[in-house]
């Protein structure tokens, strides 16, 4: 996809953060937008910020498989085609493997993994039918390396990466005109830490403050990097200098990155 003008773009989790910034950036490129979120107020604010673009908003919980499939049909009916799907909606959890509850683990997997998987599969026939489609799945740097107290989020984001990289190869082998990108943001200054669930012995306040300190990139900058990556058909889109650093560390050190993360975590997470 070399040009986004008049393309129909679907963005989940568009009521805040990266999803909102993506909606605004895509509106500026001339996209027609199908925006969804569970947060209707945030979604309405995003729509208001996409001035000049054709925008429809949908209340959608991405952890609801049947709702996602119904949404895909609805968007295809409303717009007549679908070109770009960005599975962005996500949540975070900070809890050790020993301490996290089954309920919190399931919550993360249902939204961060199954939301992406169902979003991809539900829209794929429409993207293929468009003749010029693109799936963009939002993983994380935590889809590249494991980090203490992020096992559930790590599991979901590694799964998104594996699922997405497999799909990209399938689309090429099947000669389908659907591009596929996996996005790995570093720390982006959004609401994600405020909305996160925490294990019962976590110091939520300290973790949220810590996140605000290390989140280097604005959502607007992140959205511009992602849009540029889409236009260049990048398979892996790294967002922010921290993401580039973590990706490099992973390539150079392999699994030997772990003692470095341990050292960082001892000072910052186990205090
Ligand atoms: N902010 C970061 O540092 C960072 C880093 C790496 C990856 N990410 C990923 O980026 C994506 C966007 O996160 P963000 O940082 O913009 O966070 P955010 O909290 O600002 O926005 C997330 C949006 O997803 C929505 N959402 C939550 N649960 C939902 C559900 N069940 N169905 C539909 N929508 C739902 C929220 O209402 C919110 O509007 C997520 O997948 C997140 O994991 C974020």
Relevant terms:
binds nicotinamide-adenine-dinucleotide; two-stranded parallel ribbon; seven-stranded parallel sheet; Rossmann fold
SSE pattern: EHEHEHEEHEHEEHHEHH
- Radius of gyration computed on alpha carbons: 18 Å
Instruction: Report how far apart the termini are.
Output: 48 Å
CATH class: Alpha Beta
Q: How would you explain this protein's 3D organization?
A:
Pfam families: adh_short. The chain is of the alpha/beta class and 271 residues long. The chain has a single domain, classed as Rossmann fold (3-Layer(aba) Sandwich). Helix content is 50%, strand content 15%. The chain has nine helices and nine strands. It has helices spanning 17-28, 40-48, 65-79, 102-130, 151-173, 204-214, 219-231, 241-253, 258-268, and strands at 8-11, 32-37, 55-59, 84-87, 93-94, 133-138, 178-185, 197-198, 236-239. It has a seven-stranded parallel sheet, sandwiched between helices. A two-stranded parallel ribbon has the order 5-8. Strand 1, helix 1 (17-28) and strand 2 form a beta-alpha-beta unit. Helix 1 (17-28) crosses helix 7, helix 3 (65-79) packs parallel to helix 4 (102-130) and helix 4 packs parallel to helix 5. The longest helix has 29 residues, at 102-130. It is globular. The relative contact order is 0.14. The mean pLDDT is 97. Nicotinamide-adenine-dinucleotide is lined by residues 12-13, 15-19, 37-39, 42, 60-63, 88-91, 111, 138, 140, 185, 187-188, 190-192, 195, 215.
């Amino acid at each position: 996809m070399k040009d986004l003008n008049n393309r129909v773009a679907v963005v989940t989790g568009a009521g805040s953060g990266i999803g909102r910034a993506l909606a605004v950036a895509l509106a500026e490129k001339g996209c027609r937008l199908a925006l969804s979120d569970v947060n209707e107020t945030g979604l309405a604010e995003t729509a208001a910020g996409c001035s000049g673009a054709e925008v429809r908003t949908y209340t959608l919980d991405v952890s609801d498989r049947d709702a996602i499939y119904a949404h895909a049909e609805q968007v295809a009916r409303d717009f007549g085609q679908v070109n770009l799907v960005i599975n962005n909606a996500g949540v975070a959890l900070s809890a050790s493997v020993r301490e996290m509850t089954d309920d919190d683990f399931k919550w993360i997997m249902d939204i961060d993994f199954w939301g992406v998987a169902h979003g991809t599969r539900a829209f794929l026939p429409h993207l293929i039918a468009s003749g010029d489609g693109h799936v963009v799945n939002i993983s994380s740097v935590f889809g590249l390396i494991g980090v203490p107290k992020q096992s559930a989020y790590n599991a979901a984001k590694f799964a998104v990466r594996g699922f997405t990289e497999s799909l990209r190869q399938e689309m090429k082998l099947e000669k389908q005109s659907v591009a596929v990108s996996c996005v790995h943001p570093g720390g982006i200054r959004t609401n994600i830490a405020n909305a996160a669930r925490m294990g019962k012995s976590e110091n939520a306040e300290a973790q949220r403050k810590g996140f605000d300190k290390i989140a280097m990139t604005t959502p607007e900058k992140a959205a511009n990097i992602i849009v540029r990556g889409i236009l260049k058909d990048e398979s892996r889109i790294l967002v922010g200098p921290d993401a580039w650093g973590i990706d490099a560390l992973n390539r150079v050190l392999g699994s030997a990155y772990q003692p470095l993360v341990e050292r960082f975590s001892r000072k910052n997470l186990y205090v």
